[in-house]
Amino acid sequence: MSTRVVVKIGSSSLTSVEGGLSRDAVAFYANEIAALKRAGCEVLLVTSGAVAAGFRAIGYSFRPKLLHEKQAAAAVGQALLMQSYQEAFASHGITAAQILLTRTDFGNRKRMNNAGMTIEELLKQGSIPIINENDTVSIDELKFGDNDTLSALVANLVKARQLLILTDMDGLYTGDPRKHPNAVRFEHVEEITEEIYSIAGGAGSSVGTGGMRSKIDAAKIATRGGVPVFVGKVDSTGDLQNAVSGHGRGTYFDTRLHSLSMKKQWLGFMSTPLGFLKVDPGAEKALVNGGHSLLPVGIKVVEGHFQTGDVVEVLSLEGTVLGRGIVNYDDEQLRRIQGMSSSEVIQTLDMVHRLEVIHRDEWITLK
C-alpha cells in the first residue's frame, strides 16, 4: 500500500526576493515530489503563492493590502503558478491537476465528500492534485494562515499518513533563532500546549501570511485527526524524503493516541457555527472535563440564528471557546428555556424530543 502524504508549500518558499514567482523554486519542489512518487508515495500538494506570483504581473510595485487588489493579483497569479507546476511536473512525466477550494467547501459535507472523491480518482490515475484556496471568491482565505489550515483539513480528509508543512524556518524553536542565537529547536512535540502556543511568534515574511502560530494551529487540527505533522525546511536535494522518513530539518508533531472520527473532525474544524452559547462554570466543567451533555440549565447567553441540527460554538462566560456541537433546539426555543431545569423545560415547551441542548456524542472539545 502506498504511503499517502500531503505536502504544503508556503509563499515565502516559492517566491524570489523581489516577490515574484521563482520558477527555480517550483522546479526544485517538483523534483523533490517526483522523487517521493518514484519511492512509492502518493503525494498531494497544497500550495500558496498565487497572490505573490501575480501582484507584479498585474502591475503592482508591492504586495497589495486591500482585499480586491489581492484577489485580482491572485486571479493572475494562480494561472502563472499552475503553468509553472504543470511544466515542472511534465518533465517527470507527471500530470498536475488544479483544485481550488474555500472554507465553505469543507463546511458542506456533500461538497467535502465530492472533493474527496475527485482527489481519490486523481491519485488513482497517478496525477498530482495541486490544491489552493480560491482566493478570488474567498473573503476568509487572506487571513487563513497561508493555507496551513487548508493543508491540515486536506490531510484529514484524505486520511494521509503524514502532513509536511514546508517553510523558511527549520522547525519550532524555544525563541526566534534570528534574534536569539541560543534558541533550541524542538525535535518532537508530543502535545500542543499553551506553552507551545506562547513560543510561536508572528508572521515571518512579508510575502506570506502565515507565521509559526498558524502552523501550530494546523498541526493541532491534523494530529487530532490522526495525521502526524512535520514543520520545517526543505531546500536541498533529498530533504523531502528525509522529512518523510523522520530525519528532516524541522519539528515533528506526534498524533494523540485516539484520533477523532471524520464526523468529529468535520464538527470541530470544518463546520461553520451559526450561533454561540455562553455557559456557566458548572456546564463548562461538565462539557470539557466530565464528558457530559449540555442541558438548558447551564446556558446563560444565546446568540445568533440557527435551527435544530445546526452547529453552534460554546463559550465560557469570559468568552473562551470551549467547543462545538450540533444543537437540538432552534434559537427561539433555546432563548425561552435557557437556565431552566429539565422539569421546567418540559412544562414550557409543547413538545420535547431531547432534553439535551447538545448531546455528548455530537460535541467536540476545542479548549
UniProtKB/TrEMBL annotation:
It is found in: Cytoplasm. It comes from the Bacteria. GO terms for molecular function: ATP binding; glutamate 5-kinase activity; RNA binding. Keywords: Amino-acid biosynthesis, ATP-binding, Cytoplasm, Kinase, Nucleotide-binding, Proline biosynthesis, Transferase. One of its GO terms (cellular component) is cytosol. It catalyses: L-glutamate + ATP = L-glutamyl 5-phosphate + ADP. Its main location: cytoplasm. HAMAP family: ProB. InterPro entries: AceGlu_kinase-like_sf (IPR036393), Asp/Glu/Uridylate_kinase (IPR001048), G5K_ProB (IPR041739), Glu/AcGlu_kinase (IPR001057), Glu_5kinase (IPR011529), Glu_5kinase/COase_Synthase (IPR005715), Glutamate_5-kinase_CS (IPR019797), PUA (IPR002478). ATP binds at K8, T167, D168, T209, G210, G211, M212, R213, S214, K215. Its EC number is 2.7.2.11. Pathway: Amino-acid biosynthesis; L-proline biosynthesis; L-glutamate 5-semialdehyde from L-glutamate: step 1/2. Residues 275-359 form the PUA domain. This is Glutamate 5-kinase. The keyword Transferase applies. The lineage of its organism: Bacteria, Bacillati, Bacillota, Bacilli, Bacillales. PROSITE patterns: GLUTAMATE_5_KINASE, PUA. Catalyzes the transfer of a phosphate group to glutamate to form L-glutamate 5-phosphate. Substrate binds at S48, D135, N147. Pfam families: AA_kinase, PUA. One of its GO terms (biological process) is L-proline biosynthetic process. The keyword Cell cycle does not apply. Belongs to the glutamate 5-kinase family.
